[in-house]
């Protein structure tokens, strides 16, 4: 039994590792109330659940005195009727953990005496966990002085959707490069004097904790002005799939090798000079780059 449980735990951990840093949470059912007969009826657990966000992989921890209470996972029908005849599963030893392994509604009751009809029952609605994404900046290029200039990282970021909770991995050799998050002004000027944060050891992982624009540069030598700089826009929304690129004019132009940073394909409506201000458009992204990016991503 314990072995099977640990196998399940292991499987959950593997899945969690695969979706990269999905942070499973443990919810202590009822908080201070714990798992008992509430004085004010089932509203107690309804209110508690309303204040929580349940994601697939999270754990419900029911804390109760063994013998005084128990926990049965039941169907909605059984939940509504407080019918404990054929529970889906049943745990009699407190504390008891239930892993919320599927999205949708999950129902729990206490099968002791009239506890359920007195309000010792809990319904939770579980949302699919979003796979938090770790982006490798530049993909196989890593974080270096790009031969194509600043447009390289601009194109890399162009049709990616960065969401709060995602992270960036700047893959560089310690000593050869670094990464500093800076203000927009410092980004534009390649000024590394007063960075918001500064990582000198590569590879460096940076969590995208806040929505909005984020600016990164390498402060070593003239690397930034040579194009080792990245601007991204982070959104809050997790539920939406990546938005389609803003430009409808993406007839891929022929690859422009060694195209200088300030070159942009004719007919494009992109603002000029990527070196001076980040442009969040895909114009200029060559067919080659697109297929390379797609191949690396999938
Ligand atoms: C129900 O009672 C619990 C404690 O027993 C309390 O925390 C909760 O606020 C109460 N809820 C309502 C709606 O009265
Ligand atoms: C309880 O559920 C079982 C099936 O799970 C059903 O056979 C039984 O009739 C139900 N009892 C009541 C009182 O509804
Ligand atoms: C329940 O989960 C919590 C947190 O994951 C853990 O600390 C606790 O040991 C678990 N309890 C049981 C009985 O597995
Ligand atoms: C559970 O969540 C789903 C999706 O958000 C929603 O459609 C459904 O109505 C919810 N169920 C309850 C009981 O709130
Ligand atoms: C980037 O855009 C191209 C075409 O515009 C599309 O095929 C590809 O799926 C996009 N990649 C991502 C990650 O959105
Ligand atoms: C980081 O760069 C090194 C050397 O270029 C490479 O071997 C390694 O696979 C890269 N790591 C990632 C996560 O891309
Ligand atoms: C760089 O930024 C600092 C403040 O962060 C400022 O004092 C300094 O003058 C700037 N240097 C240049 C060359 O703009
Ligand atoms: C970043 O995203 C926000 C919200 O979607 C938007 O208001 C803002 O204009 C974007 N900034 C850039 C530079 O695209
Ligand atoms: C995020 O998504 C929710 C529903 O999924 C929506 O209500 C909200 O307006 C969205 N926020 C933004 C900034 O798009």
TrEMBL record:
Question: This protein's superkingdom?
Answer: Eukaryota
Record keyword Glycoprotein present:
yes
Q: Which UniProt keywords apply?
A: Copper, Disulfide bond, Glycoprotein, Metal-binding, Signal
The record, for InterPro entries, names: BlueCu_1_BS, Cupredoxin, Phytocyanin-like, Phytocyanin_dom
The annotated region (Disordered) lies at 236-281
Molecular function (GO) terms listed?
electron transfer activity; metal ion binding
Pfam families xrefs: Cu_bind_like
Q: Which PROSITE patterns match?
A: COPPER_BLUE (PS00196), PHYTOCYANIN (PS51485)
- CDD domains annotated for this entry? Stellacyanin
Q: Which residues form the Phytocyanin domain?
A: 25-128, 133-236
Q: What range does the record give for the signal peptide? A: 1-24
In Swiss-Prot or TrEMBL terms, this protein is called Umecyanin
